[in-house]
Design goal:
The protein contains one helix and 15 strands; from the N terminus they run ββββββββββββαβββ. It is mainly β. It folds into two domains: about 110 residues; about 60 residues, no CATH class. The strands form five sheets. The protein has a four-stranded antiparallel sheet with strand order 4-5-6-7, with no helix packed on it. It has a three-stranded antiparallel sheet with strand order 1-2-3, with no helix packed on it. The protein is elongated and about 80 Å long. The N and C termini lie far apart (about 45 Å).
Length: about 180
Amino acid sequence: MLYFYSEPQQGFYLDMYVRQRDFNGTWSSPFLLHGVLDGVPAAANTFDGKTHIVYRAGDIYYRNYNGSTWSSETTIGTGGPGIPKISSVSNDLFVIWENSTSSYLSYKQYDANPLTPANFAGGIHDVGWNAYPKITWNAINEPDVRINGTNGIIVERSKDFGAFTVVANLSGSTTSYID
């Protein structure tokens, strides 16, 4: 579990710290994520186990935690008076905030590579005297794969350890392929 908190510094400014608690209930030492914070951080978790945060400190900043270390701070936009929001679907991230140079909302999306399908398996498909390779997997729930009608899943083949070539472009809702 991660615990974010702030401590007053220089009057009304806040420094943002994080501490982690293990399964035995032991807390880590405080780790300074950012000094002089303008508001409350927003956080989201992705399927790959990372925790992602965005916060305003003049500009809008982003960091992620992979379970052992924090990434470097990255500026993703010009801040405004509101608090940035972050959400996730699978490993994709979506951030929205109020831009300081206009009265419009700003939006940033990180579209991660799709995850490996769950329960991916290979086998044999028998048809009479003939046998063909067959691969199967669970349905993929990532929107950019699932709703793709022709290139959601691309199957490639290599013969004799040679170069891979595309053998099929399948709908994103497909769950098997027989070669």
